[in-house]
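QUALITY CONTROL LOG
STEP: pairwise intake check
CHECKER ROLE: data steward
CRITERIA: each record must contain a sequence immediately followed by its structure tokens, with no blank fields

ENTRY 1 OF 2
RESULT FIELD BELOW
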Amino acid sequence: MDWRARLNDLPVTRRQLIAGAAVGGGLAVGWWLWPRHYSSPLAPGPDERDFGGWITIGTDGVVTVAVPQLEMGQGVTTVLAQVAAVELGADWRQVAVEPAPPSGLYANVPLAAKWASIWSNLPSIADDPDSRLSENFARSNAFIATADGTSLSAYEPPLRDAAAAARAMLAMAAAERWGIDWEECEVERGMVRYGDQNFGFGTLVTEAAAFEPPNPAPLRVQPAAEDPSPAEAELAPAFPRLDLPAKVDGSFLFAGDVRLPGLVYASIRHGPIGNPDLARFDADAASSMTGLVGVVKSKRYLAAVATNWWTAEQALKRMRPVFSGPGAIQSVSAIELLEAAHDNVAPERTLDIGDADDLLARPDYAQSYSVAPAVHAAIETASATARFDGETLELWIAAQAPELTRRAAAKAIGISPQDVVLYPTASGGSFDARLEKRHAIEVAQIAKEIGRPVNLTWPRVQELQTVPVRTPVSARLEAAFLPATGGRLAAWRSRLALPASAREFGQRLFDNRTVQAAIENVSGQADAMACEGAVPPYGIENVAVDHLPVTLPFPTGRLRGNAHAYNAFFTESFIDELAERAGRDPFLYRMEMLGQSPRLANMLRRATRLANWDGGRRGTGQGLALVRMGDAEMGGGIACVAQASLGEGGVRVTHLHAAVDIGRVVNHDIARQQIEGGLIFGLSLATGSSIAYEDGKPVPNRLAGLALPTMADCPEIVIEFLSSDAPAFDPGELGVAVAPPAIANALYSATGVRFRHLPLLSEGL
């Protein structure tokens, strides 16, 4: 069947994400292997016209923006649509979005460059977005991944170009009718105007599509931006989220919501870590269950399929699968491996500025810190729906790297990627968990075996056990003071004992390796990406970062904040200790080292003013932290003052005051949501979110046991965005990184006890 005919059979349309005019979540355009050229891979309907492969406009005036990124609550579909709408001059009430198909046109080149060390043998010449190597890799592989806050850097320029070209073509169509130059026309709010005359987009679109746009595209002077001033915070957003109506009324579709004729439901069991191979199970114990459709066994899982998920889950409990392998792991021993590495593993230098080693031959101060494995704890566990007719696999799934996911599913059942259609659905949370592809492989195999459409949903314990955790880390930080400066830093060295976690992840993502193969292939390798964020944001002339690679018996991967999150905890906790050793106010101590970083200094100053900083005195319960991601010009930063105390119920955080500089703010409302959500996520990392492994199984094995913050635990949050002319920076991970050290420093101020391990109270008082 032709792919265009398949689209007509889908239960929903792309128009279901339209703002104002309709509601609903969208399964829209499927991912198919399109020809490798980068004209337009879109397939507009008979009443629509395509503009540059990014925008379609219908004769009804509806503007649909192709979005290559996965919506997982961060608002990316709204922000990218806003970029196009502002440049085009569209009426927001008539803007919709659809998933972009897999084409090199939509390649995330900045992310490919940033991740060069995990896909390229020549990372030093591939880590620049302008590098031909990174661009060729991204475009030839249709590398369209949602990660590391690259949505605006990757997609704002082409979206603006396409929208500006469309705006000019609409103006040309109107100008021809009026007999004027097209440059005399104004385009705004979905209308082309000249004097008191106007035409709507829908009236002009057919004629407009025939014009040749100017080259280069006539961009507006100012890109999409909103006033970040506090006065704007209480106003209704000018660009409300496109996904809100459907999420409010429950019609927004996730992978588990897909309903197909003959659909059945699957649950699954994986082996404990260290015992991955299915050894035996009692099939007869479930054979008489009403509603059981079948059992699918693989080398590394057992799945039960039934007419409802509950029956499938109960069938697995009855069958009691047993797994075998080298031996179930205990995570306590893994942490001991990391700590021992400081004495028995040769460090690999990942960054060297100046000459830190000579100055640190005898450090003036040194301290050790650590973080435990942390889990994603998304509300939605891994879920996917698949249908296989013997030739074509259709896959409904939330995937942060959809093309790589599609290829993995194809390989799993022995078909060509050309025979896999992937329909992107939104994710009910991810925090980078949906970069993993294991459930896509499993649902494809189950659908092929059963011969019916299947929805696979992992139980919570399988999610906690199977999705790789954020790596544990043991860190030793050392500092040398400049003589007679009151504690001014001359040198800094971070030594980080952890696996080659980013390289391990890259093996799974790009090479489709199994968990164990990925661990073995990167064993003993240095990993600069896993050490990202270890350089303090202060004016220190001599800095060294060492990686002590340790092979752990369980898989590790990415989690929101990634390496920045644990390195910010180490760095800002250590800075506080250095300030105390120097007898200085933690705020003033930091400020004296920010003379060459006015943006950071301004953030720090504003955060302390917002919080009425009281000098960091003992008993105030105030703690400070500062984080920068990216470089001084192109990056973003956040300063946060936490107010915390320790009571009978544990850590109590009452206030978080944050000053944020993310350059140009595209959508003020969504930026605020991202910072607030990041701060709460960081609070969860400070107080919980960690697991241990006993006999290869996660402890705890439920969300209730992770000590996640409840609504009652959430502090009052005050955020101020600083006006800036810098390029727009994604704010999603800033709050995650800054919250734990700010809270830890606040607890020291409140109690006099230093907490050097995350989660903060995991080792007691």
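ENTRY 2 OF 2
RESULT FIELD BELOW
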Amino acid sequence: MADSSTLTPQEARLIAKDAFTYAYPMADSYRILFAYFLWPKNDEYKGPLNELIGTARLFTPSDTAVQTPNADTPYCLVGADLRMEPLVLKVPKIDSKRYYSIQLIDTYTHNFEYVGTRTTGNGASKYLLAGPDWTGQIPSGITAVIRSETSLALALYRTQLFNSDDLENVENIIENGYKVQPLSQFTNTEPPAAMPAVKYPRPVRLDEGETSPRIFSLLNFLLTTFCSTHEAETELMTRFAKLNIGPGLTFNPTEFSEELNQAVEQGIKDGWDTYLELKKNKLATQEVTAADLFGTREHLTETGNIYLYRMAGAILGIWGNSIEEAMYPSYYNDADGNELNASGNVCYTLRFEPGGLPPADAFWSATMYNLPEQLLVENDLDRYLINSTMLDNNELVLDEDGGLTLYIQYAQPTEEKKRKNCLPAPDKGFFISLRLYLPKQEAINGTWQTPPLKRVTP
């Protein structure tokens, strides 16, 4: 155990601030993984680790474990424990017109690799997903080996759904096409010796994540059990260790003086305040966008703010895609700079000029989320988004000049066009996230700009 007796409160506060920023996305990701794969009595439980889990259904307001869920594509999930052996991910041949992706996310929440339409194509293939310590032989029939920096990872599958009549086709892909199995099962050989059982600690709840020092104990568990210190973080871990934070250490606030504990609590608050400042001054103005918050370790390092941006990504939409896969321009304010709120019969419009729809090679959508929960909004229309598929299926009404106007409000419109083009809002604060899957270059380089969201008279 490190000696914290020589720490000054000022130094402890700075370490706690940086360690909290570092820990937050890892702790929040673990919170969801715990609910999905490790807590069978939880309402959000999906199934055990190392199994493909998913059905041909879209997320609804009843899905509450993940903030800002995508309601465009049915999800499949694999919580991958790679400590004992790799997993083999089998992908069937998929219609060339259908978008799909397997996003691979490590314990740090880096998107370390993709399989899918953009990166590997829609042909049948087999991928070996291995942890950092695996040194075995690559069997025949494997298309490629994918390495995770951590031995706990998540494979997040998205499969495009064209319309309600397409559910059976997507269900067939999910149930009969995608396959996951341990390497020993794939090669029909004896599995390696079982790893020691892990005693998984209770996660830090979302409502306590902003303030609880217990986040450091959870960070120590994750670093010790699933992570090897990255060469770029050796000095950082040495610094954290002064406060008993890091792999192999025990964070026990009862051993600190009252003054040090107060410094730790203040450091956590400082970390949260730094995020709020980023949100207000840079995210709200789109000086910093989702493109900066999600990606590989290398991409996030290049931003110069890897840990703060990683934290912001977890808060605003954990497990978001890298920019090449999807973009998430979002509306938190109207054209006059006021925060969005549909209470009191307030209405808004979002108009895409002719030829100005979001440029995406796969599809685009506009999804409504409530605040502060950041979850889908229950409404009488059972409509949580508007997307390009609805336009393709003639479910939306274009303006006379060929543009498209969306109507955002709490009360249901009575006029037919407004009703068809309505994106229902909650009777409170909200935000709207645009999603562009496989964004075109004009979206990535900023040539295409999001249109203003205007407050209008009902």
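INTAKE CHECK: passed for both entries
DESCRIPTIVE NOTE, ENTRY 2: The first strand starts at residue 53 and ends at 54.
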